[in-house]
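@channel sequence for tomorrow's demo:
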Amino acid sequence: MPDSATTNILDDLKKLTDDLVAAAPADRAGAFSAFFTLDAIEALAEVWEENEFQCDSLFAIIASVRGLSGKSKAILQSIKGARRRAKQQRNRGMIDQLNLQNLLSESLPDYLSKGLPGLMIPGGFDVDLGGVYSVVLDVEDGSSRREKICSAPIIITRRGRDAESGHMQVEVMWVESAGPGKGEPSWRAHTVERSVLLDARKLTGLIDAGAPVTSVTCHDVVRWLTAFEDINQHKIPLTVGSTRLGWQRNGSFLLPDGHIKLSTHPELTLFPMEGMEPIMKSLKVGGTWEEWLGIVEILRDHPLAMLAIYASVASVLQHIVKCSNYAVDWSNETSSGKTTALRVAASVWGYPADDDDEGFIYSWDTTKVWVERAAGFLHSLPLILDETKRVKNPKRVADTLYDFCSGKGKGRGTLQGVDKILTWNTVLLSTGEQRLTSFTNDGGTRARVLALQGAPIAGPARTAGIVANTVRGRLYGHYGHLGRKVVEYLVFHHGIWDQFRAEFEKRRDSYAGITNTAVGGRLAAYVASIDLARAVCETIGVPSPTRDPIEYLIQAIRDGSSDSDRARDAFLGAASWAAMNRHRFWGSRVALVEGMPGSGWVGRWDDDNDRWTEICFEPYALRNILERLGFIYDEVVPRWGARGWLEVAARGVTRSKRIDGIATACVCMRRDIYEDIIHAERPDVAAMEVADAQLELIAEQVNFGNASWSSQATGD
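structure tokens (generated this afternoon):
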């Protein structure tokens, strides 16, 4: 054949076909053999894929020529083998030299092409852009064939060890098609625990992430990844890192854009949990520190907005002072500056938008699972949720608040770690038209909320609107500076953490004296952490507000102490209901006149000269009454018993009473307790004046000199 056979092979094949059809039978075999030399077979193998229809058609004609059917089939097999060998050679060269980036152009990350040279394909496998193949050898004739086990290339590109848990993480990458007419394929990276890639049952979880694996092929893919990791274990980098942001066990602090640490701390890499990419993008820095301080100058006359800054900073103090999770809630009517306050809080750490995919403000209209995973990922950074009214089912707000305050997730299985328990120690910042506490009847949860009343941006509507719009516009250009300055200060002044704790305890104890209740003591700790955050901010250079915002926090303690005593509220509510429905109680003077109500007796009423001594409820009836009043029987009634508010038998919360001659177990409320509670509800004006005077002394006691505080920094 001439040297130009490769380029002209199709024309030559067509001419051969015509000649064979016209040739005498005796001449056909000689012409056929003369044409199909080794060079011709290799040339046809090279052009076949791009000209498959033409080649198939010509060979079909040749095969139909008498005497050439068997010969044409043999040549076809030779061409097929040449095609396979050429393709294998190309693929093996690409993988051995890691030249995948040449195929995918710029879609392959630089670190893969430059940082991981010489990755190898394990024996028994092959890879090309069409996927991953298992190479099966024929023991009889020594031939091999490829069986596809994965529809796209998938490899391990990074390994990491969680510094806290010791769990191994791996980064797996696969080729993801852009779709017809949408550009070149691209590489998709995904970080999971190592056990996911080495367990077929867990590997199927990658299906939802778009990985080229199915329930049918998962076992073969596990076999491929295991072999790939084994042969390349010394070439795939191993790093130490964390799956969560914030404080790390060694005292350093991890953010998406950097690791804030002492020189003695080892470098950590962030292994983000699946779905947390938007949060990572939002935690960034924009504009300048000086311009952000200029925005604060505008807010100095708005103490509730300044509290948003301090509450946001308080999230990173929780770990230091050992304060539990809590929520700060701004509730007011629409257009009062609530969302502006959240934007200010968000600007401490990142991009302060609530209507952008890269904003650090999220909606209450999200799932419990997302809140749990976001809180676990943020760990030490605030979770910011705007507008409770967006939630269609109020119970979901209550459930979310309860789960957040617990500080621990449910341990659901995820791609990042099956049954891994997420924990956090931070602050939830929330807004709504009604108090966050109004969504829950759980006293413990309500006692974890600092409910702030009033407009965050105060003043006449027009003036407040101008301030809010100005602040919002400028915040979009300047953000993320304060949080990093605070963290740097705390990391490099680790030596005065004991002083932080002592100051926190001092302030907590002072504020606890406002109400002298268990709930007030808990709320006092939250106020102390925010007040301490204020001191840190002022140390760093944040301007002080013109009006001390502590009075709003003190009022939150008072309101919370009263609002969170659900047992007291339920006791008074049940007594009030009984007073209005006296005819439904056996023994009451009204019932003696009117007789048994159609719905039956709900309990017993004991009178003594028109003065009741006990109100005795049948438990099932009381359960329904409390539910209608918005309380939970199993939550409040045991507390009545524990506080000594009930006449009880030797054990439990009931005692036997006769109702219409039948012995019935009843919950019996004591009159003396009712009168004590009512008396306590009446305000003592003189005592309140004394309490207010004490608050002024408390405010003086908890202040301390920032200069002396800073002077004790060790800098270690």
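heads up for whoever presents: Residues 297-563 form one domain.
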